[in-house]
Amino acid sequence: MRFIDFAPGRGIRGVADALFPGRRSVIEVADQVFAMELAARDFGVLLLPRSAAAVSDSIVRAERAGTPTPWHLAVAHDARRTPSNAARTVIDALCRRPRE
Length: 100
Prior knowledge:
Shape: elongated
Number of helices: 4
Oligomer: single chain
Distance between the termini: 38 Å
Structural class: alpha/beta
Largest sheet: 3 strands, parallel
Mean pLDDT: 77
């Protein structure tokens, strides 16, 4: 299987590396739209977040069965400034544990 990869360090690349460590990467791209165009033209398989894949009618989507994909989120802000109310709301929402 031929994989279209994003550059190392991009969030989805880490997920791809963890799920498919021995995959055959045929190209590394920096642009998500270009990567989706390549996948639509059958150049290879592309891993994308569901929200990104949903915007294109020209690619076939498949969901991963089993456990949810682990995403690692980081929030950055200027340590010398207090986050705005809007930023604080986002930070609080991201740091909240899901209800069990």
